[in-house]
């Protein structure tokens, strides 16, 4: 079985994290989102993967290569991101008679994929509480009758999860797909034309699906994936360190005396942890990181090569690669009134739906001693935050905050 994964987009809603890497390469549970997708496809029986790439594609190619876990990986460049139908059409010359297509930034699991792949032509659907934010699917007798994008008054709570089983005949509809009001060629319009011609798509309900739309969604995805890990300690744990629950510690890592780690937690390779730090549940720490004395990290994602060495607090945050936090730097994660946290995305306020969210910090950010970062902050890559400074809101890449 062949899989086509759409991985060409930047993911502008994920800024500032996507200024330096494509959205699909952002890590949850210490693996890029795209790797989770590929591994689950392989587990479901896929034996070839076509990746439609574009924005910062070199990060994808370097990570997955030409073969991954014994499965061939092939690449197609979508030079302009003109929609999902356009993306699939760019891979037309590689398509087999039947294949599965999905997005590289939403995680679906093996069991659901296996159920989907049993059908000749199918669309994955899922019941959600906020269908108005998605494409709503109308189903009759198990067959898809209609897909309406973001309707004001949804006819049901069933949404299109963006995972499809197609026969190659879909290509004829791709070629005829008109430009949408959003200025894109959309696969849902192609499907609508096929349905109107009598082509049947089975609606297959999926039980688990993680859609990562905004930086704070990475924390929810991280929590779900970490809840399934098992204890695996390959690094060194010094006497006097406490490891409780399901904790993964990579090769070459050292957990020094006085460290207190409560799982589920993943720590990558060649990290220095401690002495005398507290790592709380649902935290993932990448490779070559340093978490030092009197540091507390809670429910956060720390990417590789980042240093949080002394007297720091990081709560409910996503921290990029190669960051360095000066002594006493702290990130707030709770409003004083304990209300839900709103952040500034593309100049507009967006409610995270979370009462606890600290910050999303891009790559190569450095802070001075006693710097403070307020709740709901989005900090671009290569920002300097000076000693004693307070950072808040959206901070553009390469800024200086003093």
Characterize the structure shown:
With 402 residues, this protein is an alpha/beta fold. It folds into two domains: 2-213, Spore Coat Polysaccharide Biosynthesis Protein SpsA, Chain A (Alpha-Beta Complex); 224-401, 3 Solenoid (UDP N-Acetylglucosamine Acyltransferase, domain 1). It contains seven helices and 41 strands. The strands form ten sheets. Strands 15-18-21-24-27-30-34-37-40 form a nine-stranded parallel sheet. An eight-stranded mixed sheet has the order 5-6-4-1-7-12-9-13. A five-stranded parallel sheet has the order 16-19-22-25-28, with no helix packed on it. Strand 32 (342-345) and strand 33 (348-351) form a beta hairpin. The model has no long low-confidence stretch (mean pLDDT 92).
Write down the overall mean pLDDT.
92
Q: Using the coordinates above, name the CATH class of the largest domain.
A: Alpha Beta
Number of strands: 41
- Which CATH-level-2 architecture of the largest domain? Alpha-Beta Complex
What can be said about the biggest beta sheet?
Answer: 9 strands, parallel
What strand line-up does the widest sheet have?
A: 15-18-21-24-27-30-34-37-40
In terms of structural class, how would the helical and strand content be classed? Answer: alpha/beta
Find the CATH topology of the largest domain: Spore Coat Polysaccharide Biosynthesis Protein SpsA, Chain A
What is the overall number of helices?
7
The unreliable regions are: none
Tally of individual domains: 2
Strand content: 35-45%
Helix content: 10-25%
Instruction: Provide the CATH superfamily of the largest domain.
Output: Spore Coat Polysaccharide Biosynthesis Protein SpsA, Chain A
Distance between the termini: 55 Å
Shape estimate = globular
Enzyme class: transferase
Domain Mannose-1-phosphate guanyltransferase C-terminal: 261-346
Keywords: Acyltransferase, Multifunctional enzyme, Nucleotidyltransferase, Transferase
Pfam family, one: GMPPB_C
């Amino acid at each position: 079985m062949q899989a086509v994964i759409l991985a060409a987009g930047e993911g502008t809603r994920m800024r500032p994290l996507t200024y330096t890497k494509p959205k699909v390469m952002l890590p949850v549970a210490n693996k890029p989102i795209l790797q989770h997708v590929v591994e689950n496809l392989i587990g479901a029986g896929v034996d070839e993967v076509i990746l439609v790439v574009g924005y910062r594609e070199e990060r994808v190619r370097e990570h997955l290569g030409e073969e991954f876990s014994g499965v061939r990986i092939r690449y197609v460049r979508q030079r302009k991101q003109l929609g999902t139908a356009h993306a699939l059409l760019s891979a037309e010359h590689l398509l087999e008679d039947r294949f599965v297509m999905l997005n590289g930034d939403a995680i679906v699991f093996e069991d659901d994929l296996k159920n989907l792949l049993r059908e000749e032509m199918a669309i994955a659907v899922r019941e959600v509480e906020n269908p108005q934010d998605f494409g709503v699917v109308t189903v009759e007798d198990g067959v898809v009758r209609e897909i309406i994008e973001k309707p004001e008054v949804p006819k049901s709570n069933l949404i299109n999860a963006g995972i499809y089983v197609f026969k190659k005949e879909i290509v004829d509809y791709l070629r005829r797909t008109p430009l949408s009001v959003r200025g894109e060629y959309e696969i849902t319009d192609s499907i609508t034309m096929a349905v109107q011609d009598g082509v049947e798509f089975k609606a297959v309900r999926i039980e688990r699906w993680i859609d990562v739309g905004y930086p704070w969604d990475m924390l929810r995805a991280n929590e779900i994936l970490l809840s399934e890990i098992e204890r695996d300690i390959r690094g060194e744990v010094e006497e006097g360190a406490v490891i409780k629950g399901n904790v993964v510690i990579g090769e070459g890592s050292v957990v020094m005396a006085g460290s207190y780690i409560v799982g589920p937690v993943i720590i990558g390779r060649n990290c220095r942890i401690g002495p005398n730090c507290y790592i709380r549940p649902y935290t993932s720490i990448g490779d070559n990181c340093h978490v030092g004395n009197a540091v507390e990290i809670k429910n956060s994602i720390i990417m590789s090569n980042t240093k949080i060495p002394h007297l720091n607090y990081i709560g409910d945050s996503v921290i990029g690669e190669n960051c360095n936090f000066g002594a006493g730097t702290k990130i707030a994660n709770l409003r004083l009134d304990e209300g839900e946290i709103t952040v500034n995305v593309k100049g507009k306020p967006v409610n995270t739906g979370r009462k606890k969210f600290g910050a999303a910090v891009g790559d190569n950010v450095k802070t001075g001693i006693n710097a403070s970062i307020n709740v709901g902050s989005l900090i671009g890559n290569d920002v300097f935050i000076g000693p004693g400074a307070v950072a808040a809101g959206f901070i553009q890449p390469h800024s200086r905050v003093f």
